[in-house]
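Repro:
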Amino acid sequence: MEIILIIALAVAIDLALGDPPNAIHPVAWMGKVISFLEKGGQKLNPTAQFLYGMGMTLFTVALFVVPIYFIFFYLGHISLAGSIIVAALILKSTFSVKGLRRTALKVRKLLQDDKLNETRYELRALVNRDTKDLPEPLLVSAAVESVAEGSGDSLVAPLFYFLLFGIPGAIGYRVVNTMDSMIGYHGKYEHLGKFAARLDDILNFIPARIAALLLVLAAVAKGNGRNAWRTALREHARTESPNAGWPMAAIAGALNVRLEKPGHYRLGEVKATLVPETINGSVQLFSIAASAWILICFIVGGIQIVVTT
């Protein structure tokens, strides 16, 4: 019963309050630790950078996971209610439904108001790409891609690892995913962030495909499930990431649009124009997929309870 209560309370906190301020947000703390540690590896040779990045990743995961493990080990013996509340608060910090929806809809509103410069600035919180020269259709594409990819790493994956390994699993996943978003890309982090990037690929392998299936199911509810499924199967490998292409291709097919990151990939066919209202469609699909995933988590949590009693 604790699993279901923790998930229910965490989701309720998210929908009611959204994300906590950075001062008390564990992900913000992770970011500060990563920013501090990565400075020590930037001047090393490529091999040393890779080894430093590996040690940095494992150390940061342990830094956040080990205390969490012992906190709940002892808290569970002191107060069950307190343990559930604290667990829900921490679990909520590892995923986001309201925050992702709110940011995407804010981008849509800025585009509708023809505030392209503000849109480009706002999108920096969602995408790892240079947005300063992107025209409106590519700004829409970036927002839709972020919603699709976020369905996996901002919702499905944290709850997936919570179901497998409890709060330490969700926190551990979030540490690796945060490291990947900060140092897991090419350029000056090519070697330093390689281990974190590959580990993130492994951890997201199953969640990304679950997210794609959920978006296909959401598309079925909207009457376009077949195209979402076909596009995901046909075009998921076009992205450099082995995982991101699955939910992005699925949502491209569901919306009948072509999503594009210039110089990197194109997903979907041009059947409809990318306009600000397209972001609305992506948010609707995400909301349906999120609801389905949370329901699945409740069912899995219930099965775990039955099996262990």
